[in-house]
Structures are given as C-alpha cells and as structure tokens.
Amino acid sequence: MIFMALALTLFFEPSGPIKWVIPVFITGWLISMNMFRSPAISIIERLVPQRQLPAVLALFIFTFDIAYSIEPIIVDLLNFLGGPITFFVGGVLIFSSGAFLKSSYKKVAHIKLDKKAYETETKTGKSKFWIVIVLSLVLGIYTTLMLKFIPNFLNDRMGQLDVNISGSVLATFMLFASAIFCFFLGKKVNQDNIDVFAVWGIIGFAFSIGLLVAFNNIFPTLICVLLLMVFFSFLSVSALPLALYELSTKQTIFGLGLFYGLAEFGDQFWNIVFL
Fold first, then answer.
1. Which residues contact 68 (CB under 8 A, 6 or more apart)?
2. pLDDT in tens, 55-84
3. Burial of 15 (0-12, 13-18, 19+ CB in 10 A)
4. CA distance 158 to 110
5. Which residues contact 32 (CB under 8 A, 6 or more apart)?
6. Which segments in the chain show pLDDT lower than 50?
7. Closest by Cα among 167, 242, 260 to 200
8. Helix (H, G, I), strand (E, B) or coil at 120
9. pLDDT tens by residue, 93-130
10. HSE of 118 in the Cβ direction (CA atoms, 13 Å)?
11. Which of 146, 168, 228, 238 is deepest in the core (most CB within 10 A)?
12. Same domain? 185 vs 102
C-alpha cells in the first residue's frame, strides 16, 4: 500500500505541503520492511531442520550478494523507469510475494514436525546477545568495506600500476563470485562447523585487507581479491545462522532485529565520516 501511495504521489509531481508526505511514506515503508524481515526469518527457522538452516539461509545470502553485485545496473534501470513506475512495480511485486507467502504457509502450517530435528532452543535456554552483536557489527563493517572501500581502493591501485582493469569491475566480480560461492558453501556448513566458518571469515578477511593495503603489485592484489571473496563468503553464509543458533526461542525476533539494526552501523558510519 505504501508503494502504491508513493507511485500515485510521484506521478502527479506534488508541490507545496504535499511533497513533505513523501518522506513519511518512505519512512513507513522502511519500518514495515524491517518489521517483516525478522518474523519472516523466524518462520523459516521453525520450518527448517536446524542442521539444514545454513543451506536454506544461503539462498538469502545468494540473493542479497547478487543484488549488491549488479547494483549499478539496477540503479541505471530505476533511473530509466522513473519514480512512479519503480514504486508501482515494487508494490505489485511485494503484494504478490506476500500473497504467495500466505498461501504457501497455510499448506505447511498444519504439518506435524519432528520436534527434536526442529528444536530451536539454546542449550541453556538463554540468548548470547554478545555473539549476535559481534557478528552483526563485523558483517556490517565488512559489507561496507566490500561495497564502498574496496572499489575505490582498487580503482586507485589499478591506476598506480597502470593496469587497464577497473577497480569497480573487480569489486563487482568479487561480490558476484561470492554470491555463487555462498550458494554452494551453504551445503557444507552445518550446526557443528558453523562457528569455524565464522571465525575463519572474520580473521581471514581482516588479514586479506591488510595484505591488500601492504603490497603494491598486481599479482598480490589479485590474490588478495580472491582471498577477500572467499573469506567474505565464509562470514556471509555463517553469520545469520550462527546468530539464530545463539538466540533463545522467546527472543528470536528481538535478536534478529538487533542483528539487522547493528549490521547497518558500518554503512551509516561510512556515510557520516566519508560522504
């Protein structure tokens, strides 16, 4: 409904006091989107066996990383379509997705599940919020580095080395390849080894960033690009499932809201400091 209201408002090109309604619509849209995301993932957690949760959530990571990698194309397409058409199409897609989700959930809601396989409670019955906070902050900071720092850094590096390769193209390749890698990596990650993937992702990415800054040659730079892609995939595919494993059933939605809220810290900090 908010998308449709925005499309209609933008179509008539409002002026005066009416144009100040647009930020209110957008704010309501963002609030609604965030209110939906945590319960939606909580529903998935209830319907997926715990050992297979990373593989299912890998599909989400795959979708997000693909979207990030083709962001320039999406921005150009949205600019071409214009505001009214963009919000109208977005509203139709969201409404259709919601209707499909509702009808699909009705088909599985009555199915009896093996409680042991689908048990989501922590061993102690308590949430380890410090793990959720660390994972969300690190993932948010690393994502910001991948989207904003690395493209600019690689552009400067390629210019210094007089290499005819765009840093932005390399960064896009990294995100696209990372999405593909996450999709297949999700089949290897499970409840027993997920913490190992998360630790390797955090340490390996930081180490690779250090190498990238330290070595000013084309070959080490390309090696670091590959390492960053691999370790970013490790963290991407493990952070959200691991956070879910560390949340008590009663605090899942609150914990996911905390996870996604803190994950935006890196991006907002970059926008405040560097823009």
1. 143, 146, 147, 175, 179
2. 777 777 777 777 776 766 676 677 777 766
3. exposed
4. 57
5. 2
6. none
7. 242
8. coil
9. 777 877 877 777 676 666 565 555 555 566 677 888 99
10. 12
11. 238
12. no
Instruction: Classify the phi-psi angles of 134: left when phi > 0, otherwise alpha if psi is within -120 to 50, otherwise beta.
Output: alpha
Q: Are residues 262 and 133 in the same domain?
A: yes
Supply the DSSP string of 150-199, one letter for each residue: HHHHHHHHHHHTT----HHHHHHHHHHHHHHHHHHHTTT--TTTHHHHHH
- Using alpha carbons, list the distances in angstroms from residue 273 to 150, 170, 260: 16, 25, 21
Pair 242, 195: CB distance under 8 Å = yes
Domain contains 22: yes
**Number of Cβ within a 10 Å radius of residue 232:** 27
Residues 168 and 136 in one domain: yes
- Which domain range does residue 31 map to? 1-47+82-119
Q: What is the percent of the chain with per-residue pLDDT over 90, rounded to a whole number?
A: 14
CA atoms within 13 A on the CB side of 198: 22
Selection from 255, 256, 247 nearest residue 121 by Cα = 247
- Residue 109 tokens read as 């809601």
Question: Between the CA atoms of 135, 136, 139 and 143, what dihedral angle is there, to the nearest 10 degrees?
Answer: 180
Q: Would the pTM of this model clear 0.85, i.e. be above it?
A: no
- Within a domain: 66: no
Both structure tokens of 112: 């009896």
CA distance 9 to 25: 10
A 10 A CB-CB count for 148 gives: 17
- Residues with Cβ within 8 Å of residue 84, at least 6 apart in sequence: 7, 8, 10, 11
Q: Which residue has the tokens 């945590």?
A: 38
